[in-house]
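My hope is that you will study the protein record below before we discuss the fold together.
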Amino acid sequence: MATKIEKWQEPPPAKTVKPLPAPDAEQKKRRGGRRLRKMKERYGLTDMRKAANRMNFDFNVAEDEYIDGDEVVGLGTINKDGTGRLRLVASQQKVKLNAKQEKKYKARLAG
């Protein structure tokens, strides 16, 4: 009986510290939705970037380049003839507000 009481009074065994599992290299799959679409639209590739990344097959024509610090950046097919596009214009991206923010903005402008 005394051994049982002594056993009860012993402190519980120390918890073992388990290391966290190594994270997977790939990102988890995101479910779709309005917020994700808006984020992709905001941070997505613009038409100017697409044209800058595109190269011509005619290697006799040099690509336009500019020097940015110590780095040379190529302009790809921006403003080139024979790209199949009439003209590439850098369009200003509009800031889209939700209804609550728009109402607040209009109230501030009104007075």
